[in-house]
Every structure is written in C-alpha cells, then in structure tokens.
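Field log, afternoon session.

UNIT: design team B
ACTIVITY: writing a sequence onto a fixed backbone
BACKBONE:
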C-alpha cells in the first residue's frame, strides 16, 4: 500500500505560485489575443470608414464639379448665343440699310431715260403671259419711255417666239406719280397681273439675292454644315 504524505506549507506555497503564474500567463495571452483582435477589427472598421468618407467626399466633389461644369457650359452657351444674336442683328441692320438706300435711289434712277430697263421688264412680261394682247400700266411721265420699250420688246419677242403680240398702254389706270417707276403687265383682259415695278423687283431682289449678298459682305457662315 502507498502512503499519502501531506504537503508542507512550502510545497503548498510553491504550488499556489505555480498556479498563479500559469493563470497570469493565460490571462496575459488572452488579453493580447483580445487586444490583437480589437486592433484588427479597429483597423478594418477604420479602413471601411476612411473608404466610405473618401467615397462620399469624391462623390460630393464630382457632383460639385459636374454642377460647376454645367453652369460654366450654360454661361458660355448663353454668352455665345447673345453674341451671335447681336452679330446677326447688326448684319440685318446693315442689309436693311442697304436696301433702304437702294429704295431711296430708285426714284432718282427712274427720273432719267431708263427705256432699256423698261424694255427688259416688258419683255419678261411678254414671255410670262405668252398672249396675243397685253396691257401695260406705267407712270404718266414714263409714257414716252414705255412706248420706246414696247417697240423694242415686240420686235425681240417676235424674233424669239415667231409670232407677234399687241401691247397697249392702259392710260386710264396709270401708276401713281410718286411711285419709283417700272410697269405693271396685264394679261387675259386684266385678270392676270405681273408686278414689274422697280419697287417690286427690289423686294424680290432682297429675297433672292440675300444669300449671295450675305456671302459677299460677311463671308461663309462656318456654323452652317450645308450651303445652298
């Protein structure tokens, strides 16, 4: 049989110290594990927070940059449009002034002998009407010039068309003396009228010749992709 010996006080004290040291060591290691875990989780959360805040700041900056960029584009576009409208307005004013001055000089032009111009206007009317009898309205002061124009126009019309046409002056319904001149050509017994007054021809010119006039005065419009 084995014998059980009681521990001495020194042995008990030694055993307690060993147990205390072991527990202390275990506690320190556990504390280090907890600290490491906490540091790791803190680093992860910190990284997440930094990324989140960075993304929020980037998004806010991008939004502000986009807003500022759009605002700048709108401002530049508005300024460009205002400038373009001012330029177009100034150009139109110039064109209007040119035609107004030309209109003012028509009266002076028709004060002299412009029977050759009248002949051309009448001949155009003869070709347009293509009738055997035509009436012409003109200012009373242009009667002699119109008669001269009739002779030349009838001759050229016959040479080109191979037939004659009768042209008479409608002396009962002359053009107003204050008009700028030219003629009105009447066909089909007055039912068809061709306005070939100088005023009307200038009006037509202001429309038909406007593109070419703009090109001559201002050059090619670089904003247009197609030209006619």
């Amino acid at each position: 049989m084995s014998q059980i010996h009681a521990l001495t006080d020194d042995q008990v004290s030694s055993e307690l110290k060993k147990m205390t040291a072991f527990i202390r060591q275990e506690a320190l290691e556990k504390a280090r594990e907890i600290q490491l875990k906490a540091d790791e989780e803190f680093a992860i959360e910190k990284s997440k927070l930094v990324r989140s805040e960075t993304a929020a700041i980037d998004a806010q900056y991008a939004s502000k940059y986009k807003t500022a960029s759009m605002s700048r584009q709108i401002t530049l576009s508005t300024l460009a449009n205002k400038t373009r409208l001012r330029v177009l307005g100034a150009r139109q004013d110039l064109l209007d002034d040119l035609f107004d001055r030309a209109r003012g000089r028509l009266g002076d032009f028709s004060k002299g002998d412009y029977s050759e111009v009248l002949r051309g206007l009448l001949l155009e009317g003869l070709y347009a009407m293509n009738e055997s009898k035509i009436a012409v309205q003109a200012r009373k002061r242009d009667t002699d010039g119109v008669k001269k124009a009739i002779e030349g126009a009838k001759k050229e019309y016959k040479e080109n068309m191979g037939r004659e046409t009768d042209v008479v002056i409608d002396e009962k319904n002359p053009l107003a003396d204050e008009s700028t001149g030219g003629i009105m050509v009447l066909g089909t017994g007055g039912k068809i009228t061709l306005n070939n007054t100088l005023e009307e021809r200038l009006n037509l010119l202001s429309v038909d010749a406007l593109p070419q006039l703009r090109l001559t005065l201002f050059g090619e419009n670089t904003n247009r992709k197609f030209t006619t």
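LOG NOTE: The chain has five helices and four strands.
NEXT ACTIVITY: expression trials, pending approval
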